[in-house]
């Protein structure tokens, strides 16, 4: 891909921007011994309460295996609890511990200020358009497009 193609590629621009934001947030979270993906799980548990792994995977746009690894790391740090589900022996219920809630609350204050600063750095109309475009890209049925390209022997 040429430099010009990269500059004009939505996918590439989203990819590099997401990486940069994730790296910035991970640097911020380093003193707390947590990564942005782990913090996302804490956010989901704070917002939705006790959840199954499947629910957490859905909320965080991750597969169940990735969420399971994230939860395992949070368990070791004593930020979450894992209990057997009383209604489904194959399922676990994940919840915040008091230590996890305290961490979420402490980090949350800084994240809200960071997000406020980000929002204020972009004019309202551009922010709304950006969110609309990103939502559209996320909701596109990429697998259908790829299957059609394969069917047409293009890819």
UniProtKB/TrEMBL annotation:
It comes from the Bacteria. Keywords: DNA-binding, Transcription, Transcription regulation. PROSITE patterns: HTH_MARR_1, HTH_MARR_2. GO terms for biological process: response to stress. SUPFAM superfamilies: Winged helix' DNA-binding domain. This is HTH marR-type domain-containing protein. Pfam families: MarR. The keyword Repeat does not apply. Residues 7-139 form the HTH marR-type domain. GO terms for molecular function: DNA binding; DNA-binding transcription factor activity. PANTHER family: HTH-TYPE TRANSCRIPTIONAL REPRESSOR YETL, TRANSCRIPTIONAL REGULATOR, MARR FAMILY.
């Amino acid at each position: 891909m040429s430099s010009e193609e990269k500059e004009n590629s939505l996918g590439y621009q989203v990819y590099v921007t997401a990486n940069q934001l994730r790296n910035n947030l991970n640097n911020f979270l380093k003193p707390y011994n947590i990564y942005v993906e782990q913090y996302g799980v804490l956010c989901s548990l704070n917002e939705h309460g006790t959840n199954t792994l499947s629910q957490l995977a859905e909320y965080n746009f991750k597969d169940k295996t990735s969420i399971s690894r994230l939860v395992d790391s949070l368990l070791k740090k004593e930020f979450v609890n894992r209990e057997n589900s009383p209604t489904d022996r194959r399922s676990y219920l994940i919840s915040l511990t008091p230590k996890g809630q305290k961490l979420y609350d402490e980090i949350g204050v800084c994240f809200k200020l960071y997000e406020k600063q980000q929002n204020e750095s972009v004019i309202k109309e551009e922010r709304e358009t950006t969110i609309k475009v990103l939502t559209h890209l996320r909701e596109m049925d990429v697998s259908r497009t790829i299957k059609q390209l394969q069917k047409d022997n293009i890819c």
